[in-house]
Specification:
The structure holds 3 protein chains of 3 kinds. By secondary structure, chain A is α+β, with helices and mostly antiparallel strands. Chain A contains 9 helices and 18 strands. Helix content of chain A is about 25%, strand content about 35%.
């Protein structure tokens, strides 16, 4: 089956700045794909390369098997939900949604019906006559979605789609987006800097840094088996143990990652590894306590369930964890 | 959403002329840029810069004293003439006037701008805005004419002073050396008043823009830290408004520097740069000297703009 | 400055601000008063009596009509040229990234930043250099040059608001460059262009300094007024013309204000 989006050794350099640097990427049709990374990591540029707003300075891009470089955005069956939604302020909601059909020359009645259907799909039926300025952030987001989906794109691109929404709305939209994607079967590619969002929504994630893909895999892969220190750090703030600490544990590795929630304080039993240390700080986070422990110069963060007793600062403790939770890395 | 199936991922070229042209321009953004920039740049470059350059070139020629014809040989003689006492006086007089006008414009403009930026809201904001814009944009000549009416011996000002029994004050002022004169309309004081009136509105909007950019909590922070209103003004508000004042002063200074109509209509017979240029190119027919005279405001404004840019004044424009 | 909403201004500031505005407006009000005065030979205040007769006299003056017609013609054509050139320039500067943008902005602003007399004398000597006789078109040429900046300033301010993502969104939805221009860019910058055009018209209609150098024998309304100012011959007619000019320039300014009031301001600093 042809990939929905294929990047072969794609680069986008702005002078000396390598926004995207020799990226290989294959997104399957019907996939919900996330591009995760800090700002300036190249994820948004990759999205813009798919949309056609940017052209690669090197490499080759295919969308459903067809060459995409050199093709203007308006000739790609790819639509974008913009970060700031980019709704046309001078047009009604209905005209906004029908815009894509209008410029393609679809008849007035047909495009009005299609636009109304699309608005109903994003749960905004009857909002057609309003103006973008009269809607809330969440509603504008839905309009932006309807405006893109009404064109039946082969690939839908979403640029930080939930970034401007508050927490509750964001969680609700995450679910809705996922349901929508499964029911429509359209390939969704979305860009985010929020690892929680990527983990909860995506089928697969590409973690970007410095214009390169650091790791590509399922959310579980990325979370549990980070391949580089950057991924371990960026996705869920893992502890990264140095080679010296690894040696003390009898593990032959240059570095290893260890999730804070995989560590227990004070108890250890057979089959487990343990490290002695001193508590240097602690803070209450609701469901967990965050405890910082100094283990011979290596600072380790422990996420201890709130139900467990918390040792005082200065207390000598044993940290215990399973060998399976220790993920060895080929550290650069 | 029926029957709107797009068969291909990449849609074919549109056969229409605009479709093809659009593709072409999209692929060659430099061509688009050239099409956009070409006409204005050619217009300004050829008509304006070309003329300006030709004018500056002429300042390096000289005039033959006997025939009155221009002698097309490169020389600094015309510039030397500029430094003769009479001409140098004109320059000093004009620059001094421009500086004084600028200072007074800032003093009058600041409270208006400050009030408009900080206290006027809703309807009053609009009233202030229009109250500033209307005099700014209304006819330059009519404004001067209004002052001719005001400053005339039989005009409103003399009438007001008489009614207030303050005529002695006006006469006393007019008897002062330099700034006085036979009547207000032929004195430097009159020229100065009209200059301030006509150019001061240009000072208000940049100051207002700069002040509006000062976040309110900055002022709260200052008074929170124990600053008296005077201290807050001096250490917080004034430095932040300064780019606006400098931006506004570019206009008041430059416009005063080059004006030749106001001093011609209201003022003494002593010349300003603008009048000198006008007289040299017109009645005297000495284009090289006129050109050299125009170089003075260009150089002064060049220095001024350079300094203003370093102070970040352009962000307030 | 969103704090102290409830606080009112200190009295001193209030007086200074209102006094400043009064200083700006009282002379303008005087113009309206003098148009009705019965006094013919001087600028006597208070006017000895009020009359409407000078309006009729002015109405029947062919020289005033000729000057007015010329001014309107020049302003219309200069505005049209400035609209095209200013919009093109604003589009280039705000929609594309290229080397030398600052230089372009400077080039546009220069005709207004440098004293008018320099623009005037430069054009005059260039015309005589190139053997171009003074005519209607030499006036238009000069006016269009300094009107560009007004349109440019208004258009640039609006283009900045028509964020790049609107244009990208349009293209993304399948509109080519021309469709995007027609359906997105034009409706969004339309009012700004109209406002810029109005102000350009007001600027040209009122211009005198450059015109004295590029006008030759013809007189626009400001030139007519200037002659009256230097050698007053018919004070009552001048009074009426002054009032009419004032009213004629107020209208486009008010219109421009209402066209642009939500959001960007009229780029007044560009005069």
């Amino acid at each position: 089956m042809t990939a929905a989006v294929l990047f072969e050794n794609v680069s986008r350099h702005f002078g000396a700045v390598k926004a995207v640097d020799a990226v290989d990427l294959e997104i399957a049709a019907g996939e919900f794909f996330a591009m995760l990374g800090p700002s300036g990591s190249g994820k948004t540029t990759c999205l813009r390369l798919m949309a056609g707003f940017e052209q690669p300075t090197g490499g080759h891009i295919e969308i459903f098997g067809e060459t995409a470089e050199g093709v203007p955005p308006y000739r790609r069956s790819v639509n974008t939900v913009f970060q700031d939604y980019a709704l046309f302020p001078h047009l009604s909601i209905l005209d906004n949604v029908a815009y894509g059909l209008m410029v393609k020359g679809i008849g007035k009645e047909e495009r009005r019906k299609a636009a109304e259907d699309a608005l109903a799909m994003v749960k905004l039926p009857g909002y057609g006559q309003r103006r973008p300025g009269q809607l809330s952030g969440g509603q504008r987001q839905r309009v932006a979605l309807a405006r893109a989906l009404v064109n039946k794109p082969k690939v839908l691109l979403l640029d930080e789609p939930l970034g401007a929404l508050d927490l509750k709305l964001r969680e609700q939209m995450q679910e809705e987006l996922k349901t929508l994607q499964k029911s429509l079967g359209i390939t969704f590619v979305f860009v985010t800097h929020d690892q929680g969002e990527a983990l909860s929504m995506a089928d697969r994630i590409a973690v970007f840094n410095d214009g390169k893909i650091q790791q590509l895999g399922t959310p579980e892969d990325i979370y549990k088996r980070p391949q580089t220190r950057f991924v371990a750090d960026f996705v869920g703030s893992s502890n990264v143990l140095s080679s010296a600490t690894c040696a003390r544990l009898g593990v032959p590795a240059k570095a290893a990652s260890l999730r804070p929630e995989a560590i227990a304080i004070g108890t250890s039993w057979a089959e487990q590894l343990s490290l002695p240390g001193t508590v240097t700080a602690r803070s209450f986070l609701g469901a967990t306590n965050r405890v910082s422990v100094d283990c011979s110069g290596e600072k380790i963060i422990v996420a201890s369930p709130a139900a467990m007793p918390v040792p005082d600062i200065g207390a000598e403790v044993q940290l215990a964890f399973s060998r399976n939770d220790l993920h060895l890395m080929e550290e650069a | 959403m029926s029957a709107l199936v797009t068969p291909a991922t990449i849609l074919p070229n549109r056969p229409s002329l605009t479709g093809r042209l659009s593709d072409f321009l999209w692929k060659h953004p430099h061509v688009l840029l050239a099409i956009l920039l070409g006409p204005p740049v050619l217009w300004l470059g050829i008509i304006y810069l070309g003329s300006l350059f030709a004018l500056l070139l002429q300042s390096f020629f000289s005039i033959d004293d006997f025939s009155g014809l221009i002698n097309y040989e490169f020389t600094f003689a015309t510039y030397m003439q500029l430094l003769s006492d009479a001409n140098f006086d004109i320059i000093v007089r004009t620059v001094t006037m421009a500086a004084v006008v600028t200072i007074f414009s800032a003093l009058i403009a600041f409270p208006i701008a400050y009030y408009a930026a900080r206290y006027a809201k809703g309807k009053w904001k609009a009233v202030f805005y229009l109250g500033i814009m209307l005099p700014l944009w209304s006819s330059y000549l009519v404004k001067i004419y209004a002052w001719k009416l005001i400053l005339a011996k039989e005009g409103i000002l003399t009438w007001a002073f008489t009614k207030l029994h303050l005529l002695w004050l006006l006469d006393g002022w007019l008897s002062l050396p330099i700034i006085g004169g036979n009547s207000l309309s032929v004195s430097y004081t009159g020229t100065f008043l009209v200059f301030v009136y006509v150019w001061m509105p240009f000072m208000i909007l940049p100051i207002q823009a700069a002040l509006e950019r000062v976040p309110g909590n900055l002022i709260e922070a200052s008074s929170d830290l124990g600053g008296t209103p005077q201290q807050t003004f001096r250490h917080v508000l004034f430095p932040l408004a300064l780019p606006g004042i400098v931006a506004g002063s570019i206009f008041t200074f430059s416009l005063t520097l080059g004006d030749y109509i106001i001093p011609q209509i209201v003022g003494s017979s002593r010349l300003f740069i603008g009048q000198a240029v006008y007289a040299q190119q017109g009645t005297a027919g000495n284009i090289p000297l006129a050109a050299a005279f125009t170089v003075v405001p260009i150089v002064i404004m060049g220095l001024y703009l350079w300094m203003a840019k370093r102070m970040g004044a352009f962000d307030a424009l | 400055m969103r704090s102290d909403r409830s606080a009112s201004a200190p009295l001193g500031l209030k007086i200074a601000a209102i006094g400043g505005l009064a200083f700006l407006h009282i002379p303008i009000l005087l113009i309206f008063l003098y148009a009705f005065t019965t006094e013919e030979k001087s600028y006597q205040f208070p006017p000895p009596g009020l009359t409407l007769q000078w309006f009729a006299v002015t109405w029947n003056r062919p020289d005033v009509w000729a000057a007015l017609t010329l001014s309107v013609k020049v302003a219309t054509i200069a505005t049209a040229i400035a609209l095209v050139l200013g919009t093109l320039c604003a589009a280039a500067v705000s929609q594309t990234r290229f080397f030398g943008r600052e230089t372009i902005s400077l080039l546009v602003i220069l005709p207004i930043a440098l004293p008018g007399i320099i623009t005037g004398i430069a054009l005059r000597s260039a015309f005589s250099f190139a053997d171009i006789p003074f005519s209607f078109w030499t006036i238009v040429l000069g006016h269009a040059t300094f009107c560009i900046v007004v349109v440019y300033n208004n258009a640039v301010a609006r283009f900045r608001r028509v964020s790049g993502s609107l244009i990208e969104a349009s293209m993304d939805l399948g509109a080519d460059g021309f469709q995007t221009f027609r359906h997105i860019i034009l409706p969004n910058i339309g009012t700004a262009l109209l406002a810029g055009g109005m102000l350009a018209f007001a600027l040209s209609f009122d211009e005198v300094i450059v015109t004295t150098f590029t006008g030759g024998q013809q007189s626009t309304l400001p030139i007519w007024m200037l002659e009256e100012l230097i050698r007053p011959r018919q004070r009552p007619v001048t009074n009426v013309v002054a009032m009419v000019v004032m009213l004629v320039t107020f209208l486009p300014i008010l219109a421009a204000y209402y066209l642009t009031r939500d959001g960007d301001q009229i780029a007044g600093a560009g005069k």
